[in-house]
Amino acid sequence: MVPRREVLALSGALAALAGCRSPEPNLYTILPVPGAPRRGGPRTVSVREVSLARYLDRVQIVRSAAEYRLDVAGNDWWGEALDAMLTRVLVENLAQRLPGSSVVASGGAITVQPDAVVEVNLQRLGLAAPGTLVLTAQVAIGHREARRRDVARTESLTAPVSGPDTAAFVAAASAALGQLADAVAGLLAA
């Protein structure tokens, strides 16, 4: 039989170890936002995987990059890889905005011969100032048809952040990605 004193010591050690465990991370996802439908888009659109600035390529949410310092939300994480999430939501946003087009992600299970290819390099996603999120991205659209010209441009968009918490930041990021989808849909329908 084990002495009571040793059982209590072992129980205390186990309790201390359990208290040292880090809390589970809070997981967040960017959601699609509705936009104005447009007519005249290409029949099929392929969206390549969004390319990220390397400082954004992490599980923790980077809220800002200012004064040579990153502000990272330590226990607030993206629920999936940010590049994959942005691509998935951009496809959903574009499909809603271009109801006459079939919009797919180029890296997925579905392969089509696209009439247009969308490429996005995300350069910035973070707070520019308290209450203001900025999304800056290079966008390129390549067309298969000779009558449509290829387009490349930089979009810098802002969205209000309704509060100091991470949920408000992610909601603003969703809104900014919706604005980017509006701009891309406009280019595709032109």
Annotated CATH topology? Rossmann fold
CATH architecture: 3-Layer(aba) Sandwich
SS strand fraction: 25-35%
Return the average pLDDT rounded to an integer: 89
Helix content: 25-40%
CATH superfamily: ABC-type transport auxiliary lipoprotein component
Order of helices and strands: HEEEEEHEEEEH
E-strand count: 9
| Bulk shape | elongated
Helix and strand content put the structural class at: alpha/beta
Termini Cα gap? 83 Å
> Treating each run of at least 4 consecutive H or I residues as one helix, how many helices?
3
Task: Give the low-confidence spans.
Answer: none
Q: How many domains comprise the coordinates?
A: 1
Major sheet: 6 strands, mixed
Q: Provide the gyration radius in Å.
A: 22 Å
CATH class: Alpha Beta
Features:
single chain; about 190 residues; alpha/beta; Rossmann fold; six-stranded mixed β-sheet; three-stranded mixed β-sheet; 3 helices
Summarize the structure in words:
The chain is 30% helix and 35% strand. The termini are far apart. The protein is built from 3 helices and 9 strands. The chain is α/β, with parallel strands linked by helices. Helix 2 packs across helix 3 (166-189). The protein has one domain: 3-Layer(aba) Sandwich (Rossmann fold), CATH 3.40.50.10610.
